[in-house]
Amino acid sequence: MGDIHSLQGQVALVTGGGVGIGRAIAQALVGQQAGVAICGRRVEELERTAGDLIQAGGEVLSVPCDVTQRIDVERTMKRVIQKFGRLDILVNNAGVSGQTPIHDPDDSKWQNILQVNLTGSYLVSKLAIPHMLTHHYGRIINISSVLGRFGVAGYLAYCTAKHGILGFTKALALEMASQGITVNAICPTWVDTAMARQGIEETAASLGVSPDEFREIAISTIPIKRMAEAEEVASVVLYLCSHAASAITGQALNVCGGTTAGTV
To answer: Counting beta carbons within 10 angstroms of the beta carbon of residue 202, is it exposed (0 to 12), middle (13 to 18) or buried (19 or more)?
Structure first.
């Protein structure tokens, strides 16, 4: 029997793959010898990450893509199949955050957060699944958040989107269960990325404290007293992608340092 953790010969697509958690996931997949396509809206970061991964010996494709636009997603899938001939793994990582309190008169931020985080995951999955069904095998991993487990005042759209990802994961997992495709989610706590730093600055400003002060407050709520690393999220992705996780579907795994241990 071969190595059940090996991803050699498989092809993965990571949305939002140019920076942060997405970049770490792409690096981890390349490290396991998977072919990797990364897509996102920030072209410079995509090209930089792709260049680094190719230099490290990876077979990599980068595609500019807005996951909220079906035509972009269709173009991305076409490019992936043209280069690799197949698609086995999808990591729906693309996301945006930001405060959207109920009294905000501008609805555009709410709409954008739901479109990118939730509708984007739906569109990319919808267009990826037919390629997985051609060989009756696939892995879909959706990046949710601990804010998909509980609410945070002022983050209505992000909490709604990330809770929605968990419902999407469970329902899609049941649709795909008999067809060789597993669907799971990961719920990270604060991860030391640019998005987290933006969130820290935004929340600090709303509370009237410095970013350093709020960072300490945020870390104090994590039982292990530190943020998670992007590579720690990526290691869980690798496991869920592997044959070792064949019986795991419809689940949400917390990478939270104990933050959700006191929740239902």
So the answer is: middle
* One domain for residues 204 and 138: no
Question: Which of 122, 137, 155, 158 is the catalytic position?
Answer: 158
Task: Assign 183 to helix, strand or coil.
Answer: strand
**What pTM did the predictor assign?**
0.95
Q: Check whether residue 175 and residue 244 sit in a common domain.
A: yes
Q: 224-260: per-residue pLDDT in tens?
A: 999 999 999 999 999 999 999 999 999 999 999 999 9
For 99-149, the pLDDT digits (tens) are 999 999 999 999 999 999 999 999 999 999 999 999 999 999 999 999 999
Domain that holds residue 183: 11-188+231-254
User: Is residue 264 domain-resident?
Assistant: no
Is residue 158 annotated as a catalytic residue, yes or no?
A: yes
